[in-house]
Amino acid sequence: MPVGAIFNAGVEGFNRAQQDVEQATANINRATIERQDQQQTQQGRQLQGANADEAVTAPVSQAPRVDEELVNLKVAEFNAKANTESIRTADEVLGTIIDIRA
After folding, report:
1. Which one-letter DSSP state was computed for residue 54?
2. More confident residue, 49 or 86
3. Residue 5's CB: how many other CB atoms inside 10 A?
4. How remote is the C-alpha of 83 from its chain's centroid?
5. Residue 76 burial by CB count (10 A; 0-12/13-18/19+): exposed, middle or buried?
6. DSSP 66
């Protein structure tokens, strides 16, 4: 496999890992905000003396789970590190090839 292809694969993999980090952090933020909103709604109902038997509407979309998103964040970190090592290795190999030819 050519050194350039390895370098490009490493860069593409690193970019995917960066996107995964951004997605996981966005989901963690969304889950945190939704949890705070739910707590405020429950506190408001308690203050208003809402009946415990009242029907509560389900959220439109399932809130992301923070624990799953933290795992996704860690996986993305490992992917980024692995792809960084691929880039570093391709760089070293290319440097060695240049030194041999010079």
Report:
1. S
2. 86
3. 10
4. 16
5. buried
6. H
